[in-house]
Design the sequence.
């Protein structure tokens, strides 16, 4: 069936319809048609009145009662909204979504709509980008949760970051795990002390002919096995400086430090430097499989043996994208302020996922608007001297502004009610920190004491969408 | 100001169809040239190639002395007025006209001066702060003209600017454009399908059909000496009548005969026909040159049965048929002709145009005419 | 007649536009957009591959490693899920529940919307404009407003009459229909206003009653809009989670979305279930999408209010 292309003045996708003119037909039908068409109205009217209008009023009323529904409590529920941290957090998250998402989705929709005009395979591209709309937000949330998983083995994003990070900063043989609070200094045991810049140094100074034993703890035996470690050997003296770096922990003598037990392994592969009195490195070497090392022919004077920081360079362990770590520096603030000002990283991750779903919608709607623009106006701009970019900025986009506003407002309403993706994407530990109004309503609905509160929250949600409602009404009438 | 030269200008679409076929035209500085022809003849495509809105398949466009083939529109020093006005709907009239100058970083004072001056010329001063949506069609077209004037381009291009206006506005705006041309002494290239517009406005007219230039010349030249059958039938309203007649030589006397019509050529025409070799000739004559009455000397004569009589005031427009061919004549209204009447209509030799029935070309003294260098013409 | 959608860019190629070609930046553009397209496809491909990898491999290595070991791909996850048959809480049972909710809702919404829209456009009673504006206002109403009272209402009715509304498919259907109606009525009403009244006048003069006019004149013309509405509504209800959770939360038969959500609270290593379930949940909407792309896009374009 032929689709009528709209005139250049009208917005094709926006339901900017004129209201029906009152038709005063003389004759034809009369009472019967009057009655008949009213009858048609009945099923819809009854359904809507019962399931939409009545509950609307009921919820408003319910919000003034307590959890049991028996006692009138006035605006107590509303007051508690602004004093309950959980709800403040939810409101904060709504603000984050509202500030970031509609703008971003409209922006990307516009960019894609404009760019696809110039390629031959625009239909294929649009289908690909549009398709995620067919997914449920549930399935999409679960999919993107797996993409953002913290483990670099399974989470795509962290895997990519790990590849890049390890290429730039390769981890050492014995990386520490900062997420468990481990630091380099905690590795120091007998004869070893922390040095500058994440290194470890010998406690005492050494000189030619002396030996030194440097004990470390906190090194995992499996890692040692992987490096080919064998039981530590006490070093013999030589003309140079010799020594041993070994794991100063014996399973059979767990509390004894400083003694080289047969079940304690040497630590192979450590890069060592010999530092002279002024701290400069005069020689380097690597520990053997049994942990021993030697510096031949050091000059006279006192030296210190340094175990380089790069040995303990932490590998990339993954960023917890699905957590509520704040991107804004709020850790020193009071809990309430933190609730208001923190920007949970999971919000950003979820916004990316949601953009993946909805950018196609924005693109298609804006694309339809773009296709309906009068080409000659754009040509006039070319002739007037505008470059591609100037035409876009000063002619195309302003002419598109009705469509852009429609997309923006639609997405705004959508995001106020956001629910599915949070439940399915935010980690279980982040659910409270990532919740939005709709999630709070659901949680309160389920809890035995939250019914009144849930009703109040629902009313708040309703109040938030009223501007959009008025906007639509204005658009339809005007 | 600058002239525009089109050399072998060609536009080929994917699939090989030629929208414009080796168009050669030399437009002089300050000239008002109309590109005219039926819908789809390629005139708009040619204009858009001059503007830089269509890629040129082959050939050259020179504006002034520059070859502009590879220049984008904004570097060609042109302004264009579109059929749909193409005003920026979100900008006021003032901003619409100022836009081009703003892009060129003209100082604000100069922009204001130019805009106000153009608004004065076009009587738009009251509307400067309105948006196009608040204006009538005629006002919008004037804004489009204003937008072009303000740029002071080397060449003005106009694509059927009057087509969207009603008849009365059309006449008014036509005059305005003509005034603009005189005042600015600007080179203007004007595309239209309406030959009346072309005839009244153009210093010279280029008639185009199916991508090929049929003839370029002054209105008078096109009217009096059409170089082929297409131009002859296209220019002039109502259109020229055409009759095919057989040539016979009867001992040195050349005669042309057909059913219900005959022609006695004068000496020049006889000489032409004698050397011709073809045995049929298409004879053309305009309705306004027909008279009632029998032939008294050389000329053409046709017996016409009157079909429809339209009263025009001073004249009558007669539609009739002569042995199956349609004939249209304009006769003084005093001869009140009746439907069904059979009359003899004649035209003098100097009012006659002879065409080769196969090629459609004018039969003239110096052989087939040069008409801009186009390949063989198709008859309309 | 005026229909919401203008050209449908997803299906039809745009009418030939006059546009100048960029030159070398064309290549850059194509490369950039190709990268974007790949980025867009990756999540879907990833989850599909995860569903085809053996149980247990999820935690060990990323799905992208499958390109080096393609032989590990298997349908075992699907087999395992299907082997649970139609037991309550199984994927097949959830699929059935989803169908049992979505299909009736779609049918009811399309039929009732058409009837109501007909009345709004062709009826001759006063107040049509007001009612239409109310419908427009209802378009953005969050369904959270109705959850609590309706849940209570259902429970009250269940207790009083012995019906089973709360926790049943029927109760869920009733709720979904109510919140699908505003959009459906809006869409159909806009479409019907493009039908010339003369068409019906002629019918009325011929003696046809309203029902006949509706059935034989208006509805057949309205089939494209009906298709758009049906498809849009179908996918909307199929993908819903909130309403299902509220009304079927303690029920033994759950929808596919609930099934998937339920997995998130289990062990994190059960992505073999999640991915397989996700793919299964997408199959039907995907078929609907590709088969009726044109109508779906049209519905979405008109849905720029929901």
Sequence:
């Amino acid at each position: 069936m032929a689709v009528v292309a709209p005139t250049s003045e009208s917005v094709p996708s926006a339901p900017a319809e004129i209201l029906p003119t009152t038709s005063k037909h003389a004759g034809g039908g009369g009472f019967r048609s009057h009655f008949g068409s009213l009858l048609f109205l009945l099923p819809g009217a009854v359904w809507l009145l019962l399931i939409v209008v009545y509950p609307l009023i009921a919820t408003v009323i319910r919000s003034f009662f307590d959890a049991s529904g028996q006692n009138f409590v006035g605006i107590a529920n509303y007051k508690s909204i602004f004093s309950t941290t959980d709800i403040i957090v939810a409101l904060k998250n709504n603000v984050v979504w509202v500030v970031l998402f509609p703008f971003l989705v409209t922006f990307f929709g516009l960019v894609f709509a404009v760019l696809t005009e110039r390629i031959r395979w625009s239909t294929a591209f649009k289908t690909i980008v549009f398709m995620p709309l067919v997914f449920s937000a549930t399935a999409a949330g679960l999919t993107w949760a797996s993409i953002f998983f913290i483990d670099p083995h399974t989470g795509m994003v962290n895997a990519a970051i790990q590849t890049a990070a390890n290429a730039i900063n390769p981890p050492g043989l014995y990386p520490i795990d900062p997420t468990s609070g481990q630091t380099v200094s905690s590795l120091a045991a007998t004869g070893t002390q922390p040095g500058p810049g994440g290194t470890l140094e010998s406690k005492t100074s050494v000189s030619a002919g002396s030996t030194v034993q440097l004990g470390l703890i906190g090194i995992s035996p499996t890692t040692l096995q992987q490096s080919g470690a064998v039981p530590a050997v006490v070093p013999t003296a030589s003309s140079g400086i010799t020594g041993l770096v070994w794991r100063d922990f014996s399973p059979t003598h767990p509390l004894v430090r400083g003694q080289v037990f047969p079940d304690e392994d040497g630590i192979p592969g450590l890069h060592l430097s010999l530092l002279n009195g002024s701290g400069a490195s005069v020689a380097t070497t690597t520990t053997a499989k049994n942990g021993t090392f030697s510096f031949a022919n050091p000059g006279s004077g006192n030296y210190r043996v340094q175990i380089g920081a790069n040995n303990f360079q932490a590998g990339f362990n993954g960023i917890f994208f699905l957590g509520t770590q704040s991107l804004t520096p709020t850790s020193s603030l009071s809990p309430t302020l933190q609730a208001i000002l923190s920007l949970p990283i999971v919000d950003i991750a979820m916004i990316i996922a949601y953009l993946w779903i909805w950018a196609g919608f924005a693109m298609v709607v804006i694309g339809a608007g773009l296709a309906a623009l009068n080409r000659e106006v754009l040509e006039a701009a070319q002739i007037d001297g505008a470059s591609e970019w100037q035409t876009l900025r000063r002619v195309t986009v302003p002419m598109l502004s009705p469509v852009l506003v429609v997309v923006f407002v639609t997405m705004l309403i959508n995001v106020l009610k956001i629910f599915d993706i949070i439940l399915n994407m935010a980690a279980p530990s982040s659910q409270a920190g990532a919740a939005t109004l709709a999630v709070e309503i659901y949680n309160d609905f389920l809890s035995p004491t939250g019914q009144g509160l849930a009703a109040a929250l629902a009313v708040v949600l309703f109040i938030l969408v009223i501007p959009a409602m008025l906007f639509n009404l204005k658009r339809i009438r005007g | 100001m600058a002239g525009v030269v089109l050399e072998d200008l060609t536009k080929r679409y994917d699939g090989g169809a030629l929208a414009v076929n080796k168009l050669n035209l030399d437009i002089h500085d300050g000239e008002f040239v109309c590109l005219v022809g039926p819908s789809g003849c390629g005139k708009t495509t040619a204009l858009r190639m001059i503007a830089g809105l269509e890629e040129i398949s082959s050939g050259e466009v020179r504006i002034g002395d520059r070859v502009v083939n590879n220049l984008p529109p904004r570097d060609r020093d042109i302004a264009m007025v579109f059929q749909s006005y193409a005003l920026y709907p979100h900008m006021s009239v003032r901003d619409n006209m100022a836009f081009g100058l703003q892009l060129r970083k003209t100082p604000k004072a100069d922009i204001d001066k130019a805009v106000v001056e153009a608004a004065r010329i076009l009587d738009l001063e009251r509307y400067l702060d309105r948006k196009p949506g608040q204006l009538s069609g005629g006002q919008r077209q004037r804004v489009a003209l204003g937008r072009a004037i303000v740029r002071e381009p080397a060449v003005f291009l106009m694509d059927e600017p009057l087509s969207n206006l009603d008849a009365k506005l059309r006449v008014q705006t036509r005059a305005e454009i003509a005034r603009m041309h005189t005042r600015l002494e600007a080179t203007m290239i004007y595309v239209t399908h309406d030959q009346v517009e072309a005839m009244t406005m153009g210093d010279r007219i280029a008639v185009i059909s199916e991508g090929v230039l049929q003839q370029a010349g002054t209105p008078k030249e096109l009217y009096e000496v059409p170089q082929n059958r297409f131009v002859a039938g296209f220019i002039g309203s109502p259109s020229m009548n055409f009759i095919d007649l057989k040539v016979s030589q009867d001992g040195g006397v050349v005669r042309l005969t057909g059913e219900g019509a005959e022609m006695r050529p004068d000496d020049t025409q006889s000489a032409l026909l004698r050397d011709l070799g073809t045995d049929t000739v298409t004879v053309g004559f305009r309705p306004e040159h027909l008279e009632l009455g029998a032939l008294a000397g050389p000329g053409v004569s046709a017996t016409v049965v009157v079909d429809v009589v339209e009263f025009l005031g001073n004249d009558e427009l007669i539609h009739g048929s002569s042995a199956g061919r349609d004939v249209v004549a304009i006769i003084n209204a005093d001869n009140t002709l009746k439907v069904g009447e059979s009359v003899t209509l004649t035209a003098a030799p100097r009012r006659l145009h002879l065409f080769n029935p196969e090629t459609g070309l004018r039969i003239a003294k110096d052989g087939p005419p040069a008409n801009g260098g186009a390949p063989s013409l198709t008859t309309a | 007649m005026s229909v919401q959608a203008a050209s449908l860019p997803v299906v039809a190629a745009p009418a030939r536009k006059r546009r100048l070609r960029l030159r070398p930046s064309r290549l850059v553009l194509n490369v950039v957009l190709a990268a974007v397209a790949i980025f867009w496809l990756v999540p879907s491909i990833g989850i599909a591959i995860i569903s085809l990898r053996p149980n247990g491999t999820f935690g060990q290595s990323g799905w992208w490693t499958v390109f080096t070991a393609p032989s590990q791909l298997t349908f075992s996850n699907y087999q395992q899920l299907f082997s649970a048959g139609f037991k309550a809480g199984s994927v097949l049972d959830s699929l059935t529940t989803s169908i049992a909710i979505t299909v009736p809702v779609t049918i009811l919404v399309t039929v009732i919307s058409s009837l109501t829209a007909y009345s709004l456009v062709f009826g001759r009673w006063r107040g049509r404009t007001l009612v239409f504006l109310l419908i427009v206002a209802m378009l953005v109403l969050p369904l959270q407003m109705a959850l609590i009272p309706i849940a209570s209402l259902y429970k009250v009715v269940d207790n009083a009459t012995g019906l089973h509304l709360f926790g049943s498919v029927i109760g869920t259907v009733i709720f979904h229909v109510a919140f699908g109606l505003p959009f459906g009525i809006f869409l159909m009403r806009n479409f019907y206003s493009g039908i010339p009244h003369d068409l019906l006048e002629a019918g009325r003069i011929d003696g046809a009653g309203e029902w006949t006019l509706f059935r034989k004149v208006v509805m057949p013309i309205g089939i494209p809009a009906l298709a758009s509405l049906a498809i849009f509504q179908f996918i909307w209800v199929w993908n819903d989670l909130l309403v299902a959770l509220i009304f079927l939360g303690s029920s033994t038969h759950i929808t596919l979305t609930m099934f998937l959500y339920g997995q998130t609270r289990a062990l994190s290593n059960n992505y073999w279930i999640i991915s397989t379930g996700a793919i299964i949940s997408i199959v039907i909407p995907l078929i609907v999408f590709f088969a009726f792309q044109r109508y779906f896009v049209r519905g979405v374009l008109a849905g720029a209010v929901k």
Observations:
- The first helix of chain B runs from residue 43 to 51.
- The interface with chain A takes residues 51-53, 72-74, 78-80, 82-84, 86-91, 99-100, 103-104, 133, 147, 151 of chain B (CB under 8 Å).
- The radius of gyration of chain B is 24 Å.
- Chain B has a mean pLDDT of 89.
